[in-house]
Amino acid sequence: MSIVTCPSCGQTIEVQDKKTGMWWGIGCLIAAVAIPVILAVVGLLAAIAIPSFVKARETSQLNACINNMRIIDSAKEQAAMMYDYRDGDTVPEAQLSEYITGGLDTMVCPAGGDYTINPVGVDPECSVHGSLFAPGPPR
C-alpha cells in the first residue's frame, strides 16, 4: 500500500500497489486463451440455432396462412348457401366479408402474399403458399 495525495483537493489516500509478477501474467494469458474459445463456442451455437429459428418462423407463417385460407373458404361456402350460388359462380367480396370477423381486409398472409378467393368449388389460393389443399409453391 502506498499513500497518494489527491491533486484536486489535497487529501491523502491509501492506494493498493499495482499487481506485477508472474501470477498476474498467468491470469492475462489464461484470459487471452479463454476469450477466443468462448467466442468460438457462442458462434457455433448461433450457427446451429439460427436455421432452426428461421424454419420455425416459416412453419408458423405457413400454418397461419392455411388457417386464413380455411376461414376464407368457409365464408365463401356460407355465402354461397345464403345467396344460392352454384359451383363456378364468383362470390362478391362484400358478401364474403359478412362471414369473416372484421371483414376480408383483415385476412393478411404473414409472409406478405395476396389471397385469391376463386369461384365456388375452387379452393382459395395464396400468392406465396399456393392452394389450400393442393401442393403449391414451396411449403
Please characterize this protein's 3D structure:
The protein is mainly alpha-helical and 139 residues long. The chain has one domain (22-131). It is 48% helix and 10% strand. It contains two helices and five strands, in the order ββααβββ. A three-stranded antiparallel beta sheet has the order 3-4-5, with no helix packed on it. Strand 3 and strand 4 form a beta hairpin. The longest helix has 62 residues, at 22-83. The radius of gyration is 33 Å and the shape is elongated.
Please trace the helix and strand order, writing H or E for each element. Answer: EEHHEEE
Helix content: 40-55%
Percentage beta strand: 5-15%
Oligomerization: single chain
Average per-residue pLDDT, rounded, comes to 86
Instruction: Give a count of the beta strands, DSSP E runs of length 2 or more.
Output: 5
Q: Whole-number radius of gyration?
A: 33 Å
Please describe the structure with a list of short key phrases separated by commas or semicolons.
139 residues, mainly alpha, 3-stranded antiparallel sheet, two-stranded antiparallel ribbon, 2 helices
Short account of what is shown:
With 139 residues, the chain is mainly alpha-helical. It has 2 helices and 5 strands, in the order ββααβββ.
